[in-house]
From TrEMBL:
Pfam families: HTH_31 (PF13560)
Domain HTH cro/C1-type positions: 37-73
InterPro entries: Cro/C1-type_HTH (IPR001387), HTH-type_reg/antitoxin (IPR052359), Lambda_DNA-bd_dom_sf (IPR010982), NadS-like (IPR047761)
Name this polypeptide is given: Transcriptional regulator
MF GO annotations: DNA binding
Keyword entries, A-Z: DNA-binding, Transcription, Transcription regulation
NCBIfam families for the chain: NadS
Superkingdom of source: Bacteria
Length: 96
């Protein structure tokens, strides 16, 4: 690796460290809103039980998400965004 490229990478890592420690503001922050789970499920026309089963969570978990007691994370959040964007094809794919 050329020295100049290494120096750029090192400066970038040091800048990131400053941002994480709060010494410097991030140049750009991208925020994604939490999915509105109840709205997404209602868009599909499915009951809580059926929707929960389809996305692989318990009905209780889905209820907690819909009532705002908990928020989906990781793969569940990504799956909900996919269902929200294209319910017809997402449900067709999930049905197998």
């Amino acid at each position: 690796m050329k020295d100049e490229i290494f120096d750029e990478l090192l400066a970038s890592v040091q800048e990131m460290d400053d941002v994480v420690q709060g010494k410097k503001a991030a140049a750009k922050v991208t925020e994604f809103p939490e999915p509105e789970v109840k709205h997404i499920r209602e868009k599909t026309g499915l009951s809580q039980m059926r929707f929960a089963s389809l996305i692989g969570v318990s009905k209780r978990t889905l209820e907690n998400w819909e009532q705002g007691r908990r928020q989906p994370t990781g793969p569940a959040k990504a799956l909900l965004r996919i269902v929200e964007a294209d319910p017809k094809h997402a449900l067709k794919t999930l049905h197998g």
